[in-house]
Design brief:
Layout lengths: L4 H10 L27 H16 L6 H8 L9 H14 L6 H4 L13 H5 L5 H14 L4 H23 L21 H8 L6 H13 L4 H14 L4 H11 L5 H12 L12 H8 L4 H6 L1
Helix pairs in contact: 7-8, 8-13, 10-11, 11-13, 12-13
The chain binds flavin-adenine dinucleotide.
């Protein structure tokens, strides 16, 4: 297992000994078997469900206005395998958005700038193997271009972090990460952390992203990179607080992808590249008309 993504990618792309397997065609089970050792108590399940509902409804004391915005269907994810397939059908085939993924993937508003597969992937509603094979089918039946390649490239990142977790185990959760390099000057400053998590830092680009996360449990990849960089490199807060906040909020939370990306952003992963973003420039480049910021603030 190479330490650096590029080596990992090249090893896979150039070596025919690592084929991605076919989908396993399975039939829908007609019966669910009860596991003898699980003590299912209906009451506690119901209690848990109502607690969860309570929590979701009161999430971060969301104002009525925001609730109205969310209930209009803005990124309203529906769970389950069927919904995952519906999204794939829509994104790849009906709207033909895979064709332009590379140009749109850094967007921040709405359904169509990226696939939104992550919540289904993270919860096991669809397999990355299935998505991969559908990309191959698309390349054969429609077209193969930079965008179809890029979607495979992103799935490889997901794969990479899974293997990194396998290789390094619990080190990904350590302050010094998998690199064993103690970051300089980061502290567990709860005041700064509170401002960050509630979207009240005063930097409107960061705040808009953090509010989106707080209100709906999702954030674009562009946003995630920026707010993580801001927490660590501008506010000098221990990166693990950020990773734990993401863990508690993201509907696509995935152990390897979350902690792997945070290691990376905090400079304790294995990539020498600098992950310090210029927030003003990022806001200018990715939200030039302040449309995104106005949506959430
Ligand atoms: C600090 C930080 C934390 C993150 N935490 C998570 C997490 O908990 N769960 C999660 O699924 N992703 C995480 N990501 C990765 C990425 O932001 C999301 O996968 C992506 O935004 C999901 O949207 P999408 O499905 O539309 O992605 P698309 O752009 O359509 O990409 C397709 C798929 O590729 C994979 N992918 C894309 N980018 C990455 C990446 N950088 N790392 C790993 N896989 C990637 C995802 O499975 C994604 O669904 C994190 C990124 C950062 C910077």
């Amino acid at each position: 297992m190479p330490q650096v993504f590029t080596e990992f990618r090249k090893k896979l792309e150039w070596n025919r000994d690592f084929p991605v397997r076919q989908d396993i065609k399975h039939t829908i089970p007609t019966k669910l078997y009860q596991m003898g050792w699980v003590n299912w108590e209906l009451d506690s399940c119901i209690e848990l469900e109502s607690k969860f509902k309570d929590y979701v409804e009161n999430r971060g004391s969301i104002s009525l206005e925001i609730k109205a915005k969310i209930s209009k269907g803005y990124l309203e994810f529906k769970g389950g395998e069927k919904e995952a397939w519906n999204r794939l059908q829509e994104y790849f085939w009906d709207k033909n958005l895979l064709r332009i993924y590379k140009e749109t993937r850094n967007g921040m508003i709405g359904w169509d700038y990226s696939s939104k597969f992550s919540p289904w992937l993270a919860n096991g509603c669809i397999s990355p193997v299935t998505v991969y094979n559908e990309i191959l089918r698309y390349e054969e039946e429609r077209e193969s271009n930079d965008s179809t390649y890029w979607m495979k490239f992103e799935l490889l990142w997901r794969e990479f972090f899974r293997w990194i977790l396998r290789r390094h185990g619990k080190k990904v959760f350590n302050y010094s990460g998998i690199r064993r390099q103690t970051p300089n000057g980061l502290e567990q400053n709860w005041e700064k952390f509170e401002l960050w998590r509630n979207g009240e830092t005063g930097n409107d680009f960061v705040d808009a992203n953090m509010r989106e996360l707080l209100y709906i449990g999702f954030m674009s990849n562009r946003g995630r990179q920026n707010v993580a960089s801001y927490l660590v490199h501008r506010l000098n807060v221990d990166w693990r607080l950020g990773a734990e906040w993401f863990e508690s909020q993201l509907i696509d939370y995935d152990v390897s992808s979350n902690w792997g990306n945070w290691n990376y952003l905090a400079g304790v992963g294995n990539d020498p590249r600098n992950r310090i973003f210029n927030m003003e420039k990022q806001a200018q480049d990715y939200d030039p008309n302040e449309e995104y910021r106005k949506l959430w603030i």
